[in-house]
Write a structure and sequence with these properties.
Distance between the termini: 80 Å
Structural class: mainly beta
Radius of gyration: 33 Å
Shape: rod-shaped
Mean pLDDT: 84
Strand content: 35-45%
Number of strands: 16
């Protein structure tokens, strides 16, 4: 390089000769081989979108053996949308090449969408007699899907109407599910 300082910076691989004076005033020559290894090429795929109550997911970046860091993710890449919480989170994957010792990292975004709000209620009525008339159950927002079945397998409701004589004696679970077409998430409430 022609440098005459104690520290020399090189930017290309190759063999470099060094000439230096020793402590006893002798001239000494040596060679240094410099090799620049490439960084690990990381492939993690694109950004991801989840709903808050989606199941856990396992990320699989390449090459394997690295560490994941970020909200809701373990070092081994197991991701829980519920643990991360709603919002956009950055996940970073770092890996070190065991042969060269070179490290690299890559990041991607995960967005966890909140659930649509839904609520159903009996307007302070919790118990019915078998002879009670049909009862309209309130739900917000409208447009959801009612669910629940009698012991005989027939649905509890026709829209939002509960019919005690048809339901029969016993405890009956009624569900209301609302789907958000913008986020693709759904939520279910039950009474």
């Amino acid at each position: 390089t022609g440098d005459t300082t104690k520290c020399i910076t090189v930017s290309t691989s190759g063999r470099y000769s060094l000439t230096a004076w020793t402590a006893d005033s002798c001239l000494d020559d040596d060679f240094v081989d410099v090799i620049f290894d490439s960084l690990p090429n990381i492939i993690c795929g694109g950004n991801r979108i989840y709903c808050l109550y989606d199941s856990i997911d396992t990320f699989s970046c390449f090459p394997p053996g690295g560490i994941y860091i970020g909200s809701g993710v373990t070092n081994s890449g197991i991701f829980s949308p519920l643990m991360a919480g709603t919002g956009t989170h950055t996940i970073t994957y770092s890996v070190t090449d065991a042969f060269t010792g070179c490290s690299n990292s890559d990041s991607f975004q995960v967005t966890v969408r909140g659930l649509p709000y839904d609520s159903i209620g009996l307007l302070n009525k919790k118990y019915f007699c078998i002879t009670d008339p049909s009862y309209i159950i309130s739900a917000y927002p409208g447009g959801g899907i009612w669910g629940g079945k009698y012991a005989n397998g027939q649905p509890h409701l026709t829209d939002s109407v509960f019919i005690p004589p048809t339901a029969g004696i016993g405890i009956h679970n009624i569900t209301y599910t609302i789907y958000d077409s913008i986020t693709g998430c759904y939520n279910t409430d039950s009474i």
